[in-house]
Amino acid sequence: MEKFTTFQSRAIPLDIENIDTDQIIPARxxxxxxxxxxxxxxxxxxxxxxxxDLNEDFVLNDTTYIGSxxxxxxxFGCGSSREHAAWALAGYGFRxxxxxxxADIFKGNALNNGLLPIQVSPAFLKALFTQLKANPxxxxxxxxxxxxxxxxxxxxxxxxxxxxxxKTCLLNGYDxxxxxxxxxxxxxAFEAKSQHIAIEH
Amino acid sequence: xKKTLFDKVWDAHVVDAIENGPQILYIxxxxxxEVTSPQAFNELEDRNxxxxxxxxxxxxxxxxxxxxxxxLPIQDTLSRHQLEQLSKNCTKNGITLFELGHKYNGxxxxxxxxxxxxxxxxxxxCGDSHTSTHGAFGTIAFGIGTSQVAQVxxxxxxxLTKPKSLRVTVNGKLKPGVLPKDVILYxxxxxxxxxxxxxxxxxxxxxxxxxxxxxRMTVCNMSIEMGAxxxxxxxxQTTFDYVKEREFAPKGDDFDKKVAYWKTLPTDDGAVFDKExxxxxADIEPxxxxxxxxxxxxxxxxxIPALDxxxxxxxxxxxxxxxxxxxxxxxxxxxFIGSCTNSRIEDFRIAAQYIKGKHKAPNVTAWLxxxxxxxxxxxxxxxxxxxFLEAGFELRQPGCSACLAMNDDKIPQNEYCVSTSNRNxxxxxxxGARTILASPLVAAATAVEGKIIDITKQLN
Lengths: 201, 460
Prior knowledge:
- The mean pLDDT of chain A is 94.
- Chain A has helices at 21-24, 44-47, 84-92, 104-111, 122-134, 164-172, 176-181, 184-193; strands spanning 6-14, 69-72, 96-99, 116-119, 139-143, 148-151, 157-159.
- Chain A is globular and about 60 Å long.
- Chain A is an alpha/beta fold.
- By secondary structure, chain B is α/β, with parallel strands linked by helices.
- In chain B, helix 2 (38-46) crosses helix 5 (146-155) and helix 12 (345-355) runs parallel beside helix 15 (440-449).
- At the A-B interface, helix 4, helix 7 and helix 8 of A face helix 2, helix 3, helix 5, strand 8 and helix 11 of B.
C-alpha cells in the first residue's frame, strides 16, 4: 500500500447526502476479477446518461473543478460492502474523501486502500462547500501525522480522528495481513484453547 | 459485570488486542461468493500466502448467476469467467463450494442458515453487507470488504474496533398483515439510515421473540440499512428447533452441549446499552418506501412527507413522486419477490396464500425468485408453484436476481418495481429503475391489482 503523510490538492464538491456504493460503482461493473479499471466507471450513472452521453451538469464533468480530494455530503459510502467502490474512487485519482459522516464498511475499505476518509464537523463541511463554490481553485491541505485538514490561505483548519493503528499503517504503507500473520502463534493458541468454536461444518 | 449477547459472543472470540487500537477477532465461519472473493484469492497468491483454514470457508455462487436455464452455459462472458474463477479458486484451495446447479446452491444468506452452517454464538463474515442476516441466530455476523476477505483467508481473524451497543425493543402485538419486513422498514423510517453506524444492534421484545427464524432473518438482514454493521436476536427454543437436524448442525450429544452453551448467551438483565430505542408494535402498519434510501419509508396509507431539503428533493425527482402525495393507486408494472431479505419458504407461503384463486394484473411482470435450491424444491413440494403459475407469476431459479441488477434480471428505466429486496438506491434494480420496498404480502397484492392498494382495508 502507498504511504500517506501529507497531501494537498484542489477539491471536487459533491453536495449530496447518503451517497451509496451503488452510485459510486453500479453492480453491473462488478464482474471483473482484478482491481484494475474501476476508476473509469466511478459514479457512472451520474456521469453519463443511459445512452452514453456525458451529463454536463454533474460535478465530475465540470472542468471548473479538478483535484484529488472529494468533498461529499453526510453518510458517504452507505449500502453494499463492495470494496470496488474504494478501488473506483482511488482508480479515478482520489486520495482523500471528506464528509461529515462515513458508513462503517466503506470507511474500512477506503483505509485498506490508502484512500483517506476524513470526517469533519457539519459546520466545517458547510464551510468547505461554501468556499469551493466561491473559489473553485481553493487548495485543501491534509496532514495525517498532525491529523489536520485546512483550507490553504485561510484560518479554516480542523483536526480529525483516526484509529491510531490505522494511522500507523497509512503512514508506513503497512496492511493488516502483515500484522495478522505476525500473530500466528497467538491465533493457534486461541484455537487450541477455545471451547465453543465449531471447526467442522 | 452484566453483559449483552453481543459482548458474550465478541469476548469469546478475542485473540489479542493492540494497545490503543483494534482487537484481533477470531472468525468461525467465512462465507464467500463470486463477486467479492477473486481479488482476495489473487492477493494471497501474489504474496505467496496459503489459505489458513479452508475447512471454515463455504462458498456459493449467487450474485452473478442467471435465474433461467441454469443448466446451460452462461451466456455473458464476464459472468461466466467470474463463476469459473470461483470454482477454480475453491478447487485449488480445498474449499467447499455449492456452485450453480448444486442441490445446496443459493443466496449465501439463505443457504448457510438452512443448512445449519449458521449457529448461535458464532462469528461469521462474508464479503456482503447483508451478512447481518445470520445475527438472527444470536451470531455476530457482518459484511466485510475484499481486503478483509484476504485477511480472513490468511489468518482466520480480523482486526476490529469493538462497536458500540444499540438495542431496539419492540413490544406488543403486531396487527394482521404486518410482517417482519414492515417491522424493520418501520424501524429504519423512524431512526434513519445512519442511526446504527458504529453500533451492533440487538433486537429485543416480544415482537421478535414471537417471530419465526425466517422473520428474524428478514429483520437482521436490513440492520445494515440503518448503518449498523450487524443485528442480533437472542437464541431461544425457536432458534434451537430451527438448527436441530439441519445438514451441517451438530447432532446428538454435541447438539445438546451446544444448546446448553447457547442458552447462556442472551443479554443479562441489567446490562447497559450505549443507545436504546423503544417502539410499540401497535403503531406499525404495512410499509412502503417512496425515495432512494431505505429510511424513506411510510405506512402504506400515509402520504409522502414534505421536507425542504435538496437531497430529499433529488430523491423524489428520481422517483417521479411529489411531496405530500399518496402512493395508493400508483400503477406498478413490475413486482419482485426475492433477495436475501425475503426469499425463504415463509415468504412464498405468504404470497401464495394471498394469490391463491386470483390472477396477476395484465400490466404486471411478476418475478418470484427463491433464495435457494432447497426453497425452490419446497415451493414445488408444497404445491405453491401451481398457485403461482395459475396466477400468471413467473417462478425463476435461485439467485440474487433483480435485487442488484448484476445479472439479466433488471427493471427497465423509469419503471416502478414493488420489491421485497432491501435497497431502493438509484439504479439498484437497473439503470433508471425506481424501487419501492415492501413486504411479500404488499408485493403480492400489488401484482394482483397492478397498482399499490391500501392492503390494510382488506385486512381489518
